[in-house]
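Before the break, one more example. Copy the sequence into your notebook; we will annotate it together after we see the structure.
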Amino acid sequence: MADLPPLREVIARHGLSASKALGQNFLFDEQLLDRIAAIPGDLSGKQVLEVGPGPGGLTRALLRSGAKVTAIEMDKRCLPALAELSEAFPGQLRVIEGDALRLDHAELMGGEPFAVLSNLPYNVGTALFVRWLGGERWPPLWTSLTLMFQQEVAQRIVARPGGSIYGRLAVLAQWRSNAKLAMKVHRSAFTPPPKVMSAIVHVEPGAMPEGVSARVLERLTEAAFGQRRKMLRQSLKGVSGAVEALAEVGIDPQRRAETVSVTEFVALARILSV
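Here is what the structure looks like once it is written out:
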């Protein structure tokens, strides 16, 4: 195993600092990083996609686990530090300079199954998450998503109906996937410390409900939760046939979206997918 200098030393040598504009917060605790890399299980010899590796803290842990890592990084300042990791772990690390939101991840991974592990830059985290959860192809090429979010976002992903934090993100994460809160991470673990706590969500693909279009469910939830605290008969007016479908499923049109279960949203989407 490669003998690597401490992360703080690498960052100091390359003159790196976390960029607020890029939503960066660096993790230095190598034991914590190893624990994060272990969440999906044995990664030895497996393909892993990492978005926003920064100076390579989590990347190191993934490489130590034996994973074959493809890392997407748009901060040019971090590339020399990542190049050093490529040299220390020959054949295990490929670094792609670019914007993860603009790249085709399936194509990048050669159409092969891959796990996703990332301390996501907070300004693109939700957009990437929704994208990974979307699409008509199921199961997806990704075998699991192990992602760091602000704790509030993580709690919204695993929320249950009826609470104030239950919303579109929960439905998208739970209708054909299994999502759980895997670990909480104290703000003091980061440099610089963010203002809020963080948490890691682990998601694995589940069974795809029959007769349901992902696009229809996405459009339905977008409308339903787009006007929170409004009755469904109002918020779903813009979705053709949705208000009529409420009666067919047995959902009171005076209910609000935050009271509608994932199962009920799936039943609605099934009617509208015909």
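The first helix runs from residue 7 to 13. The beta strands are 26-27, 47-51, 68-73, 93-97, 114-119, 142-150, 177-185, 190-191, 198-205. Try to locate both features in your own notes.
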